[in-house]
Amino acid sequence: MSSSSALTLFFFCTSTFLYANAFNITNILNLNNEFSTFNKLLSQTQLASTINSRKPITVLALSNEVMSSFSDQSPANIKNTLSLHIVLDYIDVTKLKSLKNSVILTTLFQSSGQAKGQQGFIKANVMKNGDVLFGSAVHGAILDAKLIDSVTSQPNEISVLHISSYIPIMNAPSDTPYGSSTPLPSQPPGDDDYEYDEPPSPPSSTTKPVVAAATAATAKPPSSAKDNSTTSGVSAISTPNLAFAFVISSVWFFMTVWW
Ligand SMILES: *[C@@H]1O[C@H](CO)[C@@H](O)[C@H](O)[C@H]1NC(C)=O
Ligand SMILES: *[C@@H]1O[C@H](CO)[C@@H](O)[C@H](O)[C@H]1NC(C)=O
């Protein structure tokens, strides 16, 4: 057996490994008609592709019956509420049942930059009777979304759990008003899945010539106007590409050295 065919085999196995662990939340939820509304809304809000680009991830799935109470909400509200049901970690039934205390979980809503206080976090708790309950992590929120069962689990990749009711976005307590000195949790890098408002454009210099002359020394256009919000998806795509490039160059290296 020639070394080149061994290398070809090596190349194939490695590249297959890199791509075989991809999952598709749409296909996972499609296996059960009970989640068709939830599934459809995940696609409409583009949350499905965000889920597919991340791991580990856990989706708290809601039945059509629960989703029927959503129909009157605005698309933006629906997206925010659904993103509170996407946990940025792998949590399966075994992990939940073995909890000693309650656990605070970070959701995709937290990385939207719109969550205040604890709004972007949810809490899970195991009751004495073994039930697992979920709710908002905002202080005083009720935990009443009960774990029903596991829909799918691919360890450290994706877990989909069916819960009994949706977790509402609770108002942040009034003792932490917006703009207080408490710093908001920083946004993790690479979370460009949300659209942000454009920063205000600098005032036109022609509108008030006299005042403009007087304030020219102090007035400066907002420097944030240069911020680029078009990096969406680049980090998600470049990581596997980099890994792929690494494999190619490794193979190239071995072929050059050994062949
Ligand atoms: C996931 O599956 C759906 C339906 O089969 C398809 O439309 C979509 O393109 C897939 N997404 C990815 C990232 O493969
Ligand atoms: C922003 O993105 C555009 C194109 O996507 C690019 O031409 C421009 O140089 C970028 N600006 C910054 C500040 O990165």
TrEMBL record:
<keyword id="KW-0472">Membrane</keyword>
<keyword id="KW-0336">GPI-anchor</keyword>
<dbReference type="InterPro" id="IPR033254">
    <property type="entry name" value="Plant_FLA"/>
</dbReference>
<keyword id="KW-0325">Glycoprotein</keyword>
<dbReference type="GO" id="GO:0005886">
    <property type="term" value="C:plasma membrane"/>
</dbReference>
<dbReference type="InterPro" id="IPR036378">
    <property type="entry name" value="FAS1_dom_sf"/>
</dbReference>
<keyword id="KW-0449">Lipoprotein</keyword>
<dbReference type="Pfam" id="PF02469">
    <property type="entry name" value="Fasciclin"/>
</dbReference>
<feature type="region of interest" description="Disordered">
    <location>
        <begin position="177"/>
        <end position="232"/>
    </location>
</feature>
<keyword id="KW-0654">Proteoglycan</keyword>
<comment type="similarity">
    <text>Belongs to the fasciclin-like AGP family.</text>
</comment>
<feature type="domain" description="FAS1">
    <location>
        <begin position="22"/>
        <end position="152"/>
    </location>
</feature>
<dbReference type="GO" id="GO:0098552">
    <property type="term" value="C:side of membrane"/>
</dbReference>
<feature type="signal peptide">
    <location>
        <begin position="1"/>
        <end position="22"/>
    </location>
</feature>
<keyword id="KW-0732">Signal</keyword>
<keyword id="KW-1003">Cell membrane</keyword>
<protein>
    <recommendedName>
        <fullName>FAS1 domain-containing protein</fullName>
    </recommendedName>
</protein>
<comment type="function">
    <text>May be a cell surface adhesion protein.</text>
</comment>
<feature type="compositionally biased region" description="Low complexity">
    <location>
        <begin position="204"/>
        <end position="226"/>
    </location>
</feature>
<dbReference type="InterPro" id="IPR000782">
    <property type="entry name" value="FAS1_domain"/>
</dbReference>
